[in-house]
Amino acid sequence: DHYRLTPGQSTTLTLNERRLLQKVARGWSNKRIAAAYTTSPKTASNNVSLLCAKLQLPDRVAAALYYWGGMDLLD
Q1: How many CB atoms lie within 10 A of CB 60?
Q2: For FRET with 20, which of 6, 35, 61, 75 sits at 20 to 30 Å CA-CA?
Q3: CA separation (Å) from 18 to 9, 27, 75?
Q4: What would the mean pLDDT of 54-70 be, rounded to a whole number?
Q5: How far apart are CA 54 and CA 71, in angstroms?
Q6: Whose CA is closest to 21, among 69, 41, 40?
Q7: Rounded to two decimals, what is the model's pTM?
């Protein structure tokens, strides 16, 4: 099984970014992420967008696949 629960340690993600990525990968909505971080859904959306940009991924679906080790499914 080549899937993993988190990106390798070689990523440049901070601990908070890794936690956000985990939530995105588990299908959390922006509203739910916002509640967990006590912020607005718009801020959560912006943070997800920044995370995707940092990972050079097009969207949260690709971010979830990245997290679960399934990037080959995008091809």
Answers
A1: 20
A2: 75
A3: 10, 14, 24
A4: 91
A5: 16
A6: 69
A7: 0.81
